[in-house]
Structure formats: C-alpha cells, structure tokens
Amino acid sequence: MTAAKESGARKVAPKNRGTPLSAARKTAFDVLMAVERGHAHADDLLRGKGVDALSSADRNLTTALVLGVLRWQIQLDHRLQALLTHPNAKLEPEIHIALRLGAFQLLHLDRIPARAAIDESVELAKRAGHRFASAMVNAVLRKLGGAAREELLEESAAGLALAEAHPAWLVERWAAFYGLDAARGICRHGQAQPFLAVRLQNPAVESELNQAGIEFGLGELLNAARIVTAGDVLNVKAFLEGRVRVQDEGSQLVGELAACAHESGAGKESAIVAHSILDCCAAPGGKTLILAERNPQARIVACESSAPRLEQSQKRLAYLGDRIDFRLADATKLQEESAFDLALADVPCSGTGTLGRNPEIRHRLHVEDLARHADRQRELLAGALRAVRTGGRVVYSTCSLEPEENEQVVAAVLTATPNARMVPLDSRIDVLRGEGILSGSGAERLRGCLKPEGALRLLPGDLHTNGFFIAMIEKVE
Hints:
Elements: H1 3-7, H2 23-36, H3 42-45, H4 49-52, H5 56-81, H6 93-108, H7 114-127, H8 134-146, H9 157-163, H10 168-178, H11 180-191, E1 197-199, H12 203-211, E2 215-218, E3 225-230, H13 237-240, E4 245-246, H14 249-259, E5 262-265, E6 268-271, E7 276-279, H15 286-294, E8 299-304, H16 307-316, E9 324-328, E10 340-346, H17 361-364, H18 367-387, E11 388-398, H19 407-416, E12 420-422, H20 426-434, H21 440-447, E13 456-458, E14 468-475
Parallel strand pairs: 7-8, 7-10, 8-9, 10-11
Antiparallel strand pairs: 1-3, 1-4, 2-3, 5-6, 11-14, 12-14, 13-14
C-alpha cells in the first residue's frame, strides 16, 4: 500500500506554499532522498555545493539531521510503523523521509520545538507532491510526540540492534565474534558523532590554528595526531591550503605501520632504506602522503582503479612532484614483480568499522556482500605480495570488523603463498614508539589490541577511532 492509499487520497502536485520551510531541513530532505535513491554517499553530498552555500548554522543543522536520520533510521521506522493506521503500508520515499526527519527531531533533538519539527515535515510532504498524504504525516508525528517512550532493552543481540538502530544480522555477528559487551560498544560508537582527528607535525601550524580559535586534545595513539575539541577546522586557512589534514587516527596508524621500513635479521628488526613503495589502493591519498613523508628518498607507485578518485589524489599530492607515480590501474595486474621494498594494500571493504562516520552503510550492506569483498581482497593481497622483493613486506588493512574480510583473507593468501609469512606487529609497535611516532600510552593500548598471530584489531568503542584490521606479511625465500 502506498502513502497515498495510507492517507486515503491520491498524490497531487502542490499548489500553494504553506508553512515556511527552513533551508537546513529542505537541504537535509534533498540529501536523504539522494541517498535513498542510491545516487551518492551522504559524506560526499554533505560536502557539496548545495550544503556549502548554507550559513554555518544551517550547515550544522543539515549535517545533524542527515547523519542523525541515517544513524537512527532502523529505530525510527520501528516507532513510526507502530503508529500507522495500516502498519504494513508501503510508504512513498518522500513521505518516509519526511516522517523520519520529523521523528528524529522529536526523539533526539531536544532543542528543536516539536511544532517546528512536525509542521516542516508536513510541508516537506506537501512540496514533494503529496499534499493529501501530508495529513497522515501530521497525525503520525503528533501521536509520536505525545506517546510514551518505548523501553528498548539491550540484554540480547536483537534488543541491542533495535535499541542502537543497527541491523540485527550485524549485531548478532559482533556479539558472537567479540561478545555482547564489545558489540554494545561498537553500536554506541556507531551512534555517536565521530571524533574529528587531524594530523599535525608542524608546531607553527598548530599555533596558527590555535590563533584561529581551533582547540585540540592530544591524540589517543600518535604524537602527530590531535583531536579537535572546538572550532571549525575545515574553514581555516591552513586546512584550505593543505597544511593540516583531517584523517582518522586509526587511518594514520595504518600509514605509519606501512611506512616504517624495517626487516627481520638475526632475530631482530633492523632499519632499511626503502627505495620503492607500492600503494595498491591509494585514494584518497592520506596514507600515500604518510608513506612519502616517512620515506623522502623513495619513489612511490600509487594505483587507483577509479579515475575521479585518482584525479582527486593527484591534486591533493601535486606538490610532491614526480616522487609519486600515479596510475589508473588495477593493482592485481601490475607487470612489476619483486620490484618494491614495501607495499600497502589498504583494500576496499564493507566499511563496518566506520558506521559512525558513514551511517548509510548499515542500510546498504548485505551478508552476501562480504564474500564478494573477500574475493577482491584476496586478489589484491596476493598481487601486493607478488610485487614486493624477497624480504619485502606488505601491510594489509581494512576498515571492516568482519572476519571474512580480515583473518580469513590473510589465512587464505598465506596458504596459497608458501614464500610468505606473518610478521607480528608487536615489534613494529616498539619501533614506532622508539622513533617517537607512537606515544607511550598509545603503544600500550595497541599492545592490548594485538591478536595471537600478531595482527591488530581496533574495535570502535575500545578506541576513539574507526574500526580497523591490520596485518603485516613478509615475502621470504
């Protein structure tokens, strides 16, 4: 049953403008509609021209509305469905999003007057061409605003999934793999505004940002990382000129682990000079830049299979000149074999470790997608191992929490590659601590994240980072 049938009237085009509609809510509605239709990702849309044209206050509200609706959509739909006259009615997308926007404001934004949340949701429905269905939007949201809050218990995986608005199949997996308490931490991290981390290596730039009103806390792991606690760092001169960059601290850690050029010998790690480095999946370029910073003598081949993403990386790193050989290429089909000292395979994945930053993933991902990702990931890791010389190393990483994309990929490639072995990352943590890259407390926290075979697993909720899996493999005789 459509929304028009649910309201008892057919869809008609809007005639008159009624309630004034704020720019923030109209833009949020448009962004959510584009996400619903699969036209683009919310993160990209929230950095688009339409959002940039808004005032600072409207940009902030638009972002809060879009990300909030996407984070809480599963629970919002559960509450709204119970209030429909026909709970199994199939709503038109425009009506569904108008209802979700109103419900999110009523349930999660205490500073938004209920009248504004309801009236503007009704107006959104009218302007989308659902004038008669807007009466149903009004009635449902008024009932929601006056209804007693349903208590949602988190004592089981199913209850946790609904309480924290995550797909039940994902939460059940996490509870089975990591325990219910860890699953609860992952879910709550996914519902919170993520920490905004920046990479700062120049004290003068930090002072400049402080003078511009940007306030920081220390990073949790890395001495070069800072957590923004106040101010709009995305609009200061240093950021716009590329002298400070936003990058999750876990993502920075992947780059640092890959960039640290050491090899085994006589039972210990010794430094080497890396002359050639391969970045298999380089875009958007943040880890490529760390590889270049830590190895100024090296020539880096940066592969990317997406032309637009490669172009963005080239522009971002243009100041490095010809030190980086950007290639529109599939890293599994490189002609070079045994040619690189180091390789980073930070592979495309499901992204389940980034649900706080990319909330719409939870609505698009299906369990069968994991096997498809794993097929590609095995190819990329095997290709990276072919590309490094004997004694060379590959860092394999994902921002996924799923074993199919992590441990199982590494195990499958090692089984198929007799001349490769895992290198436990505890020694690499010691090296980074000794070089002053990791803080003392950061090194200790990472040791607590080591798996028995020596890989690292960063779980959201344990650390203030996205979720990551990181493993190091060495090519041997």
